[in-house]
Amino acid sequence: MGDLLNQTLTWGNFFIFLFWGIVMLLLVLGFVTYAIYFERKVIGWMQFRIGPNRTGPLGLLQSVADVAKLLIKEDTIPSKAEKHLFILAPALTFIPAFTVLAVFPYTNKLYFADLNVGVLYYAALSSISTIGIVMGGWASNNKYALLGGMRSAAQMISYEVPLVISVTGVVMMAGSLNLRTIVGDQGDAFWEWNFLPQIVGFVVFVIAAISELNRTPFDLPEAESELVAGYHVEYSGFRFAFFMLAEYVYVFAIASLTTILFLGGWHAPLPFLDFIPGILWFLLKFSFIVFFLFWLRATMPRIRIDQLMGLGWKVLLPLSLLNIFITAVYIELTR
């Protein structure tokens, strides 16, 4: 009877997790759909254009139409491609992007998984997407795709080092890898959030995160003007959509992670504003980070590959190590 009860509880938990997983997937798909629309509108306004305005009222169905177009397009595989790896690469890129969302706390009570190693979980799983991108570039049997994959491997591995080290200062101050604990350690006033005492780590984290996203000015793995879309040049239809989906899911993830680690999560910026629900503060900070990423795309030119690598190894890495040293000295002096 005990075994049967345990089995029932196990299956019950499975269906609960499955249900909330589907809910999260639908929320993320909704975010991706309208993040693309919002990005087009923002860039249009900044460049004195209108942006999407024909498909649906105010162009709100433009992204939906684009997704529908991708899903019904013919799925082609180059005759000389490494077929099995070519098929696997988009899934290997997207799955880690979605699974990292499980550990993000949106309020003190709204979260999917409360892991004591949440920061480590994110760093470990997000690095797997690099393998999918490199695999897609190599399996395509196309020189432009291969160059894009090689650039992606160099860029994402190089910038993952300062990204993780920049977070170490926050972990040292909170004394935990748990994301809820890190948010709780930040006070109910903006001067108690980590972006001020960890200003060096914050700047390094933002720059490295943009590079990890392969977004302007670090969009060298795609580089339409040089590599005609880079690592996914041979992909079409829903496989191409998976690569694009992974990119925008990581935008969601990085905006959430920045809010949690450095901007106080669900905390209000001033104590007298605590009456406003925490989820609204989280969404406001999250939206600001997303807007900042789109703003950069409309503003910054693409940098050269040698400048990219030099910035990562010669500037960001030493600064992230310096930040750890300063944090350790600060903790020791304030004991």
Blueprint of the fold:
Blueprint: H1 2-46, H2 62-72, H3 83-99, H4 118-126, H5 128-139, H6 143-174, H7 179-185, H8 199-212, H9 224-227, H10 237-262, H11 278-299, H12 305-333
Largest sheet: none
> Which assembly state applies to the chains in this document?
single chain
Helix count from the secondary structure assignment: 12
What's the N-to-C terminus distance?
54 Å
Order of helices and strands: HHHHHHHHHHHH
Strand count: 0
Low-confidence stretches: 1-8
Structural class: mainly alpha
In percent terms, what proportion of residues is strand?
Answer: under 5%
Radius of gyration: 21 Å
Helix content: 55-70%
> What do the pLDDT scores average to?
86
Shape summary: globular
Description:
It is a single chain. The protein is mainly α. Helices cover 68% and strands 0% of the residues. The chain is globular, with a radius of gyration of 21 Å. The relative contact order is 0.13.
Task: Output the keywords.
disordered N terminus, mainly alpha, 0% strand
In brief, what are we looking at here?
Helices cover 68% and strands 0% of the residues. By secondary structure, the protein is mostly helical.
